[in-house]
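Sat 14:20. Reprocessing the chain from the morning session after the first attempt stalled halfway. Input below, unchanged.
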Amino acid sequence: MMVRRRAGIGVLALLTVSCGGGGGGGDTSAPVTGGTGTGGTGGVAVVSTPTLAHCAASDGTFSNATSELGLCYEVPGDADATEIEELGGGIAIADFNRDGQLDLYVAYGQQQHGELFSFDGTRFANRGASGIEPSAMDIAGYFVDVDGDGMKDFISAQVEGVEVFINDGDGGFVVGNGVTNIDHDRATFSMAAADYDVDGDLDLFFAHWGTGYVGGQQEYLWENRGGGTFADVSYRVPVASSVSANHRASEYSFTPIFADFDDDGDADLLMANDFESSQVLMNAFGGDLFLDLTSEEISDENGMGSAVTDYDRDGDLDWFVTSIWDPDVANNGSGNRLYENADGFGSFVDVTDETGVREGHWGWGACFADFDNDGHMDIFHTNGYREPGRPKFRTDPSVLFMSNGDRTFTERSAELGIVHTDQGRGVVCTDYNDDGRVDIFVANNGKSPTVFRNDHDNANHYIAIDLEGVDGNPEAIGAKVRVTSASGTQFQEVQLGNGYLSHGPATLHFGLGRDDAITAVDVVWPGPGAHSSRTEGLSVDQRVAIRHPLAG
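Finished this time. Tokens:
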């Protein structure tokens, strides 16, 4: 095991159904149109039109830094959006070319295909032709090493399926669908990756919403057979189906997250699904089968986005699910849910009311992050939907639940400078500028993104940790990391694809409050052998890399 200190971060025909229990198909009363400029130029646009209001500069504890980062621009297009396209809009952040700087892919969901940017330490520049050329409208994208060569490839989730683009090692990508065998015939939403069968490489799980499949058991779980080839083993997972408000029977999965919620060494699944069909799925018999352990406690009506972490610092993984908060509509608006892992083995209980996180509007992407570095996880999620007859959701604000340190939260978005009332979809929370504070990226449907830079100014400490794994899983996805300091032990798990239509870097960020020393960092590594390591003597306020005991 080796520790390296790093100074910086170098990042099928579609059925018409109504999302979230609304009353019909897409909103045809107000067609979705794009702007008239050129998207993704990397230049700072003049924020003077309603289509660019989402990136108007602001200052506060969180500052809207979209323009200064070169990410404020018009997305051209004038076509009406389909309902699937209305749901799209994702962000992927990773260092795909290993140059020490973050790369950013923005999927708009409609109007035009997504675009790739690279961070130069100050701004995000559009990379232009990169080889990522979706053949259908993309609603999300994911950087993941599918062929095990140590370079991040790219998976494009689209309204008609998926496409795989292989990293060519020279700053670009080439089409690779035939290499991997991964192929979908229907709209594909969020993706999660983990080594569910504990054989040392990453497997993939995809979500599908409203495509008319019921009990089809296909195109969900793809097992990595090595050498970049995958096999569809979706029969192992009992994906739930439901019926929408306009009586369409289908599977309605939105956001899967691999998480070892029973702490037995293999990745389980937590699935945020629409129309009262969210699921708790336990990995059993060495990955041969996922058992549905969903209880009556799992009561979210319209699960859409989600996030997983140990929010209460008791050593196990808890689950937050975004939904619709609308007290004016019966049986379709009881809000978010926070499910606490009561026994450490995946018995989840609903603690939404006692924690204060129910009221979140029309929720989508979410994250857990310690925004003020006080040692307690906060929650951010974005909102918005163009639902006929419910105009309040066209401009409902994103919300920020700050932890009070006692298992309760207070909503403080406006107070802390987060003003976002656009059509938010995907969310990534990461420290893009390596200043020790976690920032917020929001993907907007049909528009350029919004970035809130975290400018918290306090005396709290932190440590950021990257793990260096072994071949097949170079970022140690699925590793369990515990950081111990004077105030106790915190626990996080490394995840890839841990939010609605989006994912960020595998870096773990731990706020430490006023603790100015770290007793130990303990890692339980994923893969065969159940290896573990302990690192002592680390200083606070830095980013470090910890290497697998067997890494060369």
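The two ends are 9 Å apart (CA to CA).
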